[in-house]
Design brief:
The chain is an alpha+beta fold. It folds into two domains: 68 residues, 2-Layer Sandwich (Double Stranded RNA Binding Domain), CATH 3.30.160.250; 55 residues, no CATH class. The protein is built from five helices and four strands, in the order βββαβαααα. The protein has a four-stranded antiparallel β-sheet, with helices on one face. A hairpin with a 7-residue loop joins strand 2 and strand 3. It is elongated.
Amino acid sequence: MDFVYKAKLESDPDDGFLVTFPDVPEAITHGKDRKEALASAAEALGLALRGYLADGLPLPRAKARGLEDVAVPADDAMKLALIEAFNASGLSKSELARRLGKNETEARRLLDPDHPSKLAIMQAALSELGKIIVISVRNAA
């Protein structure tokens, strides 16, 4: 899954820009100018998507078209991908921990959307879940 969602930028009546996401209505933010609004949008998007998984909900798929691309911050995207792959795997946290050579507490932290995890362990866990990480770099908006 690509962790890029479409954002709608509108003039904010209180000055600046209001940013909303048709596919993630919980992500709403603003900024004094376009650049600040888009930076805030990425943060709000990551936070909203982590909330979906924390609540046991599936991530919404990006379906909107014709708006501004906003990428989920890389650390959030990795964590979201890991949790989504784990949820689909049918494995227990104990089994994932065993496969990673870690204790269950570490696996629980790894699967906590709000707990920061290092790239190497997330990459190892994704590999155990049959996933690979592909990095794409684009020009900034």
